[in-house]
Write a structure and sequence with these properties.
This protein is mainly alpha-helical. The chain folds into two domains: 14-88; 90-145, no CATH class. Helices cover 52% and strands 0% of the residues. The protein has nine helices and no strands. The chain has helices at 14-21, 26-31, 42-45, 51-63, 67-70, 72-83, 101-110, 117-127, 135-142. Helix 7 packs antiparallel against helix 8 (117-127).
Length: 145
């Protein structure tokens, strides 16, 4: 049986992320699309040139699904280090084909991973891509079970 939590701390706060990103110019905001999963980048890159529009599309992409998957690298780059004092990275980003391996490598090397990039990339490589599974494991992956 689980006990009730005595307190709750919100880790993903889009308001905090918006406040940090609001000071950035349009080219910088567009460049942040590379921090989003592959299928969420187009709306940001094709947004009208107004800063507020690009910012809104970027935040909508983060909200499109689980924020740790869709906005994890943005939160990590702009908020986690400052507020939590630790990097937070999902371990299934390659497995679920949210990013290409070379993109994960670039994002990890650009961020502060305390020299653990090689270890993290090895783990991504060992886990592989979900579509490479065989038999029932592949079926479970395809059905998102």
């Amino acid at each position: 049986m689980l006990r009730e939590a005595r307190s709750v701390e919100v880790v993903f706060n889009l308001t905090d992320l918006r406040a940090v990103l609001a000071g950035l110019d349009v080219p910088t905001l567009r460049s942040l699309a590379a921090h989003l999963p592959l299928d969420l980048r187009a709306p940001v890159l094709s947004a009208a040139p107004e800063r507020e529009t690009v910012l809104t599309r970027l935040l909508e992409a983060v909200l499109a699904r689980s924020q740790i998957h869709s906005g994890g690298f943005l939160f990590r780059r702009f908020l986690f280090r400052r507020f939590l004092g630790s990097p937070l990275i999902k371990r299934d980003l390659l497995f679920r084909q949210q990013y290409h391996l070379y993109e994960l490598e670039a994002l990890l090397r650009a961020g502060d991973t305390e020299g653990r990039e090689t270890e993290i990339l090895a783990e991504y490589g060992a886990k592989g891509i979900g579509y490479q599974l065989q038999g029932r494991a592949r079926l479970r992956f395809l059905l998102e079970l």
